């Protein structure tokens, strides 16, 4: 009886957590969703340019093929910088290139900071 009750509680907890995850995904900031989709598009393009399948990229990067697929299709909601770097290294591309526009904006900001006035006092 106790085991059945515990299994029932775990099932309810999983259902509740799935609802929370779905809600969080719907409420995720539009910029974050756009960034995740852009990383996925850039990953697919880089992978295809390298002539590599999702399966072989996953093997090289030490990831699951389904993870590569989810990222490429814009479902990388828990995408980590480490994962992006591992994929870039596995594809032999410049670090930060999968970030695309965000990486270009960061470069522009750092270049404008270099040319700006000296604030060291």
Per-chain topology:
Elements: H1 2-27, H2 30-49, H3 54-61, H4 65-72, H5 81-91, H6 101-115
Helix pairs in contact: 2-5, 3-4
Backbone shape: globular
Give the SSE string. Answer: HHHHHH
Number of domains: 1
Which structural category do the helix and sheet elements fall into?
Answer: mainly alpha
The CATH H-level superfamily is lambda repressor-like DNA-binding domains
Throw out a few tags for this protein.
mainly alpha, 121 residues, 434 Repressor (Amino-terminal Domain), globular, single chain
What does this structure look like?
The chain has helices at residues 2-27, 30-49, 54-61, 65-72, 81-91, 101-115. By secondary structure, it is mainly alpha-helical. The protein has one domain: Orthogonal Bundle (434 Repressor (Amino-terminal Domain)), CATH 1.10.260. It is globular, with a radius of gyration of 20 Å.
Brief summary:
The protein is mainly alpha-helical and 121 residues long. It is built from 6 helices and no strands. 73% of the residues lie in helices and 0% in strands.
């Amino acid at each position: 009886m106790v085991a059945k009750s515990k299994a029932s509680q775990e099932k309810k907890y999983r259902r509740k957590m799935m609802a929370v995850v779905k809600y969080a995904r719907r409420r995720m900031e539009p910029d974050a969703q756009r960034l995740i989709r852009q990383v996925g598009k850039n990953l697919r393009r880089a992978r295809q340019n390298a002539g590599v399948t999702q399966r072989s990229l996953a093997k090289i990067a030490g990831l699951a093929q389904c993870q590569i697929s989810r990222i490429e299709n814009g479902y990388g909601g828990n995408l980590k910088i480490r994962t992006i770097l591992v994929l870039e290294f596995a594809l032999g591309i410049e670090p930060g290139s999968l970030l695309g526009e965000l990486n270009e904006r960061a470069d522009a900001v750092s270049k404008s900071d270099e040319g700006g006035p000296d604030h060291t006092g």
